[in-house]
Design a protein that fits this description.
- The protein is an all-beta fold and 89 residues long.
- The protein has no helices and eight strands.
- The two termini are 24 Å apart.
- The model has no long low-confidence stretch (mean pLDDT 95).
């Protein structure tokens, strides 16, 4: 992604999955953050309006599995879906 940085973080205390996007340049977008795992299926949060300088975080508080890999997603209206590399515990 040339206009921002997308990250996924697997956290403890409490156990949660976070997907973070920092918009560094370009025009305002409408997008939703999500994740996907190697065992299939994608999950997204609500659509947000994101402007340059904004930092959006979507958090899922849950026990996550370490026997699968995780990928952060951002689905941008009119532009498609972008993703992080696979993350492991």
């Amino acid at each position: 992604m040339t206009n921002g940085q997308l990250c996924i973080s697997l956290n403890t205390s409490p156990s949660r999955v976070e997907v973070l996007y920092t918009k560094k340049s370009g025009g305002q977008i409408k997008a939703k953050l999500g994740y996907r795992t190697t065992n299939g299926g994608s999950t997204y949060g609500p659509t947000e309006t994101i402007s340059t300088g904004d930092r959006e975080v979507q958090t899922w508080t849950m026990s996550y599995r370490c026997d699968i890999d995780w990928k952060g997603l951002i689905k941008v209206e009119g532009q498609g879906t972008f993703e992080t590399p696979w993350a492991t515990c």
